[in-house]
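Kindly go through the following sequence and its backbone structure tokens. Advise at your convenience whether the structure tokens fit the sequence:

___
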Amino acid sequence: MHTESIERWLHDHTFGQDEKKSGERRTLIVIVITAVTMVVEIAAGIAFGSMALLADGLHMGSHASALAISAFAYYYTRRHAKDARFNFGTGKVNSLAAFASAVMLVLFALVMVWESVQRFISPVAIGFNQAIFVAVLGLTVNGVCLLILGWHRHFHTEDEHHHAWDNRHHYGHPHQHGEEHGAHPHKRRAPEAWDHNLWSAYLHVLADALTSLLAIFALLGGKYLGQSWLDPFMGIVGAALVVRWSWGLLRSSAYVLLDMQAPEELQEEVRKAIESEGDNRISDLHVWAVGPGIYAAEIAIISSQPLETDGYYNLLPKKLPLVHVTVETHQCTSPACKTF
């Protein structure tokens, strides 16, 4: 008697998270540049007795530490992608690291506000020439880092991403009725649009660049116009912008960490696909992110004549970024079920 192999029903839960993302390489390069700049500024500050250089060097060090979180998250995600203890893979490590980085950005902004208020209360003498040099140096380094991270080319708004599903995605073979179904996205890479880790790295560098840019304007105003109050004022303005950016990252990463429902557009595509056949009606639908740009779904279906499990999986468009789908069916012959 021929025994069908069960291999086609088996799958892992890596969902492409074991692949090295392009954002990881760029983040490492930025860390090296930031660390080298930090060492140079601290060494120069000690050698020439410059507190401005020394302070900016230590400031660079704090951002290098924050960026290290992103680098570690990339490594940990790859290293443990096949660890069976993670039910849906390690994709959420990306969002967890981003959330931690966003919290650090908020704390950084609060320190900026505190220092600025202190300067308003107790003004200090400013070495304008030296401070301007440090600010320009910092802006130059951060500008290079921003170009390396390439956020403007790889990150899109959530709305743009919702309408740009990866067409290379392919569904795997289903399990028995009512059991889990997995996908095998061997050729699919997570869209950069949802790489929270890359986003957080970019925001740290952008916050540093903004601080340098505002400092240059404030210092020039203080040196040539005698408006020394611009220095602490720009510190508060910069802090406000950093908090605003951080809030977006906090909210976006928290949505993933708390398993909140996927975008309405994705839910509607799933619902329309399933209910397009016969009298199928979805009684319960949960779609949530399990990593950058990848989702899992649980679908409960009521029908007078339920399809075989394969039939429901085949109804789902291949373009949808669903990597793990569970289907539960209930047969109901009552006329009320048709109007559910």
